[in-house]
Write a structure and sequence with these properties.
Radius of gyration: 24 Å
Strand order of the largest sheet: 3-4-2-1-7-9-10-8
Largest sheet: 8 strands, mixed
Shape: globular
Structural class: alpha/beta
Order of helices and strands: EHEHHHHEHEEEHEEHHEEEHEHEHEEH
Number of strands: 15
Number of helices: 13
Distance between the termini: 42 Å
Helix content: 25-40%
Amino acid sequence: MIKVCKFGGTSMADGTNMRRVAEIIRSDPARRYVVVSAPGKRYGGDVKITDLLYETAKNVRETGSTGEAFEKVKDRFRGIVAELALDFDAETMLLGTEAEILRENSEDFTASRGEYLSARVMAELLGMPFIDARSVVKFDAEGKLDGERTFGLLREALKGKPRAVVSGFYGEDVNGKVKTFSRGGSDISGAIVARAAGADLYENWTDVSGFLACDPRIVKNPSRIGELSYKELRELSYMGANVLHSESIFPVREADIPIRIKNTFRPEDDGTDILPTSKYRFTGKTVTGIAGKKNFTVIFIEKSLMNAEIGFTHKVLSVLLKHHISFEHMPSGIDTMSFVIDSEELKNGVLEEICEDIRQAVSPNNLRVHDDIALIAVVGHGMSRNVGTSARLFNAIARAGINVRMIDQGSSELNIIVGVDNENYENTLKAVYEEFFNET
């Protein structure tokens, strides 16, 4: 059996945690390939290494010097190596990295050095070969992962290495320059290694014991989700459940590799299994999880007989394309259409320009804007199997005295999304959780 393990920033925060990671890996011979993040926060008020590196990149760009931020990075890694009592020339590695940062003068390159240094240290601690992601993870001319080339290079690099440590978060573009994934992208790196290694299981180690059914900052002691499908994960991650990067399932999905979320600090806990469709079995629960986000804007368009007007939707979408705006959802009726858009994209007069362009393009009878909207996704394969799920959902929200501003349900019946005013977000989550998870 082959397991690929990815450890997040909290797991790598200091020498004590790294030693704990090493014990976890050594406790199971199947844990053969390891992907690590940059060291995260050690305590409240601490600064993540990646944030210090972004500050370093700014210093290099503006002053030509790495500045105080990189001094903190060096001190942090010196402390980790000393705490681990490694016979390892960390100083040469750190000074060499600083020289490269100055020479490259690239934000992506600088930000990637947290994972690079972290993986170098972990490889020394475990006595495993180190594989630099730059040599095996490749991006195409559009900045997207070149999967075919990456998987081929990784398979070749892993061949003959029964164990190895691979740096996460970055790769190399077509110009030979280091390019990073979006923040949290080490999850994607771990999944890429799992796919290339032909893993039987991809373990993602973090500081929580799996996925929770709702945000614990809002609902006290929510249930742990024992199992969920790739599709449920995608819906919940996209809507704000941030245990796992929402794009991390794609490298392993086609290979039918399960993912297990585990807690570095409570390795005995069961965690959460995320299963491909071929291995997923219905758990019997109506709702698997609830997640949401605040701060959306809804553009509501109404026009009589819009369904008979050929090209109506195309004209509206062309306006969004012109302004380089993506939308989250598009609920519609016979004479109505709404676009739900992240409010951050509509600042600095963009919203007003879009509305005027829509008026010019389709001459609606009515065009309204609703802002400060929160979206809540209720997700679960069980919703399509249980009569009255929608009634229970909306009755629970009504009993809490909350007005629903928008409803959107996917054709797969996997989720129902409701829009409420931002100020009602927390109470809506609590009401829905109470209905489906505190059943008597």
